[in-house]
C-alpha cells in the first residue's frame, strides 16, 4: 500500500448485499471537523447518537446510529467514526458518497483492503500476528478455527513468541556483556550455564513449533486428492465423506470428467477433498483434458488417496499410477469395495499406508478420517489454542536453525562468543518478524492486501 497513512479513510465495512444493518467506517488523525460538517454538532465519545444522515440539500439519505471513538483508544488508534444504518447497497453507497463529498476538503479517500487493520498495527494497537488473526477470524470455516483465531487476536500466540524472544535477549545480554569486558577472564559458558539456557530455549521452541504446526493445520487444513482408475469409487467416497450427493455416481467408467471439490471438517480441521477424473489411456478429447487436470491436482496435493478396487489389488494399471505419483507427497492406498470381497480377512488395516473401506456401507471411513488427521500431524493431545500461518512456521524453522548453529559454537567454549552472540541475534530477529517488530514493507503489503475492504 503506497497511499499516505496520514489521510483520513472511509469504506463500507459490511459485506455487499442486502442486510438489516450496514456500516460505513471512517478513520483519521482528527475527524472532529468532518463530524461538525456532517452533523452540524459534536458527538459525545462512545455514545450512540440516533441521527439522520443527510445529503447536500439537507434531505435524509438514511437514519441510524453514529458512534465516535477518539484516538488513541479506538480500533485503529486514530479517530474512528461509524455510521450504522440500513443495509441496502444503494443507501450505503449514497452515505459513503456523501462522506467523500464532505471529506474532500479534509483529503478523505477510499480505504484500501485491510487498511483499517494496517493502521491498528502501525499505531501499536495490534502486533502483526494479531492483525493477521483478524482476517483469520473473518475467514474461519469451523468453530475450532474461529476459537483459534480469537485466541490469536487476543494475543495468545504473540505471548508465546515474546516470552521466547525475551529469554533469547537475556542470554544475548550476558554474552555481549562478556564480549565488552574480556579482561575479566570469566568462563561465560560455564558461569552462566549458557549451554543449559540455550537447550531450555530450544526445547521450548520445539514445543512452540509443534503447536504452530497444529495451528496451521487448523487454519489451512489439508488439500486431499482422490486419484485412481475409473470406476473405483472416488466419487462415491467423496459423497460418503461429505454426507451428500456432491458428485455423480454411475456404473459407467469415466463419469467424472472434471475435478469436483468439497470442503469437509474432521474434528474441526478443514479438509479440501478433490475428486478427479479416472486415470487411464483414452482417445476421448474431453476425458483427456479431465485426466490432465487430475494430474495437475495431484501435483498440488498435500495428501493423495490412491483408490483401488479391493477385488483387484494387483492390477498393473494401479501399479503404473502409483509409479507416477509424486514420491514427496504422503500417499495412502485406499482399497474400496471391501464389502464385495469373498474373504473378509483380506480387509486388514495393519499397514499404515493401506486402508480397506467401503464407500457404500461406510466401513473403514472413520479409520480413514483418523488416518488423514494423523498424516496432517494433528493430535488432540497437542492441540494449538491459536492459529498460525505458513510464514510463522518458516520463521520458527529459521529461528531453530540459528539456535542449532549457536549450539555448535557453544561447543568451542568461549573461543567464538562473537559468533554465538550473532546466531542469538538472528534467532531473535526471526521471532520478531512474526509479531512485526522487524518486517519489510513488501511483506506488510502482501499481508494486508489479502484483507477485505472495510477491515
What does this entry look like structurally?
- The chain has 455 residues and is an alpha/beta fold.
- 45% of the residues lie in helices and 16% in strands.
- The chain has 15 helices and 12 strands.
- The strands form 2 sheets. Strands 3-4-5-2-1-6 form a 6-stranded mixed beta sheet, covered by helices on one side. The chain has a 6-stranded mixed beta sheet with strand order 8-9-7-10-11-12, with helices on both faces.
- Helix 4 (128-139) packs antiparallel against helix 5 (143-153) and helix 8 (194-220) runs antiparallel to helix 13 (390-410).
- The chain starts with 8 loop residues before the first strand and ends in a 7-residue tail after the last helix.
Please give a handful of descriptors for the protein shown.
455 residues; Gyrase A, domain 2; 2 domains; alpha/beta; 15 helices
Helix content: 40-55%
- Please state the second-level CATH architecture of the largest domain: 3-Layer(aba) Sandwich
Compute the number of strand runs: 12
Number of domains: 2
List strands and helices in order, with pairings:
Elements: E1 9-12, E2 22-28, H1 32-39, E3 49-54, E4 60-69, E5 79-85, H2 89-103, E6 109-110, H3 115-122, H4 128-139, H5 143-153, H6 156-180, H7 188-191, H8 194-220, E7 222-228, H9 234-242, E8 260-266, E9 269-275, H10 285-300, E10 303-309, H11 316-324, E11 331-336, E12 354-356, H12 365-376, H13 390-410, H14 417-435, H15 441-448
Parallel strand pairs: 1-6, 7-9, 7-10, 10-11, 11-12
Antiparallel strand pairs: 1-2, 2-5, 3-4, 4-5, 8-9
